[in-house]
Amino acid sequence: MTILDTIVARKWEEIAERKAAVSDSELRAMPLFGRSVNSARASILAAGSTGIISEFKRKSPSKGIINDRVDVAETTRGYVAAGAAVLSVLTDEPFFGGTPADLQAARVANPQTPILRKDFVVDAYQLLEAKAWGADLVLLIASCLTPEQVRSLSAYAHELGMEVLLEVHDADELQRSLCDTVDLVGVNNRNLKTFVTDINTSVQLARLIPDQFVKVTESGLHEASTMVRLHEAGYQAFLIGEAFMKTDDPATALGHLVTDYREQLVTSKTIHQIV
Ligand SMILES: O=P(O)(O)OC[C@@H](O)[C@@H](O)c1c[nH]c2ccccc12
Prior knowledge:
With 275 residues, the protein is α/β, with parallel strands linked by helices.
């Protein structure tokens, strides 16, 4: 049994508990449910966007406690001020220390910014929750879903007005799960079964992702030079958590990375023009 199997098994228990406590119609009646969503796709592709999807993550199975001191509203507001194109907020409690309240607090603090509900979505009920808690897009992880589930969950997310980030880790997952109700494709550099992180995963898969999808590289990103390399490989967005959250001031860490990335991009473009 891998950690992913353990997480998904626990997730089904959580879903059963939540369904018993809050009905579909109660979720639909929540104040945020009817709000219009912010497009992550548009934000990432806008001229001058950093493409950074900045994550609020307190702990993880691979790293343990990363940061249990900072406030979600203050941190996410700081992320946006420092250049985040999209926010990612973990809502899984047992393994990542996130809560629905974190997502709602980030929503209220950042009304104009697209926010990803970062969780292990396996059931349509979680999409209703995401909408009710103020999410603009949801993550679907190919390795814990059948291609049919990816299709039906992504179509339902679209019906609810949200966008979909499909996460893959290898060519096989990409080829069998990709469908046109997905908006962004994320390549996770971290193998969720072994926790090994390798940037080459993204480099190798980039050319297999059709251009209609926004290409996102996920996990293990700490250096501007790595971002430049992945940008040149075709990535438009970068999902980054730990590099920011492990510091006492995650938003300032993001600001520094943005400055370095912009400088290095200019240098790299100049070199390409000369060579
Ligand atoms: O903290 P990192 O290494 O920058 O990674 C962020 C993000 O990619 C990672 O948290 C993540 C990617 N896919 C996930 C699925 C579930 C939980 C977490 C994740």
